[in-house]
Design a protein that fits this description.
By secondary structure, the chain is mainly alpha-helical. It has one helix and no strands. The radius of gyration is 26 Å and the shape is rod-shaped. 0% of the residues are buried.
């Protein structure tokens, strides 16, 4: 009887493990995409703010 329980437990863990691995892969893909978008947004913001700062410096110096 205990052998049967352990067999069922191993089967459940195996099924969960396969599902969990694909779940982790999906999360990693989503995380990479969002990280890329975040980098792009930060870069755009820095470019805009740097441009604004340069513009303000040019205006104030003239």
């Amino acid at each position: 009887m205990e052998f049967l329980y352990s067999l069922v437990l191993v089967a459940i863990l195996f099924l969960l493990d396969n599902h969990f691995v694909s779940f982790l892969k999906n999360i990693r893909i989503v995380f990479k995409k969002s990280l890329l978008n975040l980098k792009r947004m930060i870069l755009n913001f820095c470019m805009k703010s740097a441009f604004c700062d340069l513009h303000l410096i040019n205006v104030s110096s003239t």
